[in-house]
Design a protein that fits this description.
Length: 313
């Protein structure tokens, strides 16, 4: 009996240690490479200074990576004979960008650390935070990189700009995210722009749109042609603020999926709250980013630390 108790005690201790060792932690690189996070921040801030739109692009990379089989850097992988890159998925093609900045970050971090130490998945998570110039949070670290990618999965799980509220709620629920996460993370659209191809149907056919706003957007997005013409999600596309939510309250959401958040449904109240209370939005955004960053992360001996973010070792 005593030997059984000893065995169980050892088993619980091992399990506790294993859980601790393989959990994500903000302190993961503190000892192995304390220079890593400052290096990421320097390069991200320089990239956003050169091109303000890059902040939204880096945030989007992390989001689109996490939604496809977890936050494992799979989005960064180029095609191989074994799989097609997720960059070719409907929600990513001619849309996701910032890969050169990620390459630059990886090269610099590996240089200051003396070897490949920081995963590409962790680089995306830290770069997403550092790109905002707004809310901040302690990014949990220790992710490992996948060795494969799936365009088919990306096609099936990435949320679409044409989704209504029930579809959005269901999409986020499948990732373990609730309605508060949906609204808070959608607030990332306070940064950046979208292409005419993506919002054309809304500005010509929607009924829940401010007529003056629709007319304004039509000026640069004709019924035919101009697919790549860009328009901002809100009036301050380089500033992380609450203008996105103020727009929704005025029926000035650029995408169908944006306006769906304020269209007589269950998320209206939260949109209104965020439009009036920047602190509430920033606080919830940080919490939801941490939650999203935990989706199916590879840890411990799973996956690898890539030498080149675009290909498996």
């Amino acid at each position: 009996m005593a030997s059984l108790r000893t065995f169980l005690l050892h088993a619980f201790l091992w399990l506790g240690l294993a859980t601790t060792a393989f959990s994500l932690s903000p302190k993961f690189y503190d000892r192995v490479c304390p220079q890593a996070l400052p290096a990421i921040r320097r390069i991200v801030q320089a990239a956003v200074h050169r091109e303000p739109r890059m902040g939204a692009s880096l945030l989007r990379l992390h989001f689109h990576d996490c939604f496809v089989n977890g936050c494992d850097g799979s989005l960064l992988l180029d095609s191989t004979p074994a799989f097609e890159t997720e960059k070719n998925a409907r929600g990513n093609l001619n849309s996701v960008r910032g890969f050169e900045v990620v390459d630059q970050i990886k090269a610099e971090v590996d240089r200051v650390c003396g070897r490949p130490t920081v995963s590409c998945a962790d680089i995306l998570a830290v770069a997403a935070r550092d790109s905002l110039g707004g809310p901040t949070w302690r990014v949990r670290l220790g992710r490992r990189d996948s060795t494969t990618a799936s365009r088919a999965l990306a096609d099936s799980v990435l949320p679409s700009a044409s989704m209504d509220l029930p579809a959005l709620i269901d999409n986020f629920k499948k990732q373990g995210l609730n309605q508060r996460d949906l609204v808070a993370l959608s607030g990332g659209h306070t940064l950046g722009v979208s292409r005419c191809l993506i919002f054309r149907n809304r500005i010509y056919n929607a009924t829940n749109i401010d007529p003056a706003f629709a007319k304004e957007r039509r000026a640069t997005c004709p019924r035919t042609g101009g697919n790549s013409n860009l328009a901002p999600f809100d009036p301050t596309p380089a500033k992380f603020d609450t203008a996105y939510f103020k727009n929704l309250v005025k029926q000035r959401g650029l995408l169908t999926s944006d306006q769906a958040l304020f269209n007589g449904g269950s998320t209206d109240k939260l949109v209104k709250t965020y439009s009036l209370n920047p602190d509430a939005f920033w606080n919830d955004f940080g919490k939801s980013m941490i939650k999203m960053g935990n989706i199916k992360s590879l840890t411990g001996k799973q996956g690898q630390i890539r030498v080149n973010c675009r290909k498996a070792n």
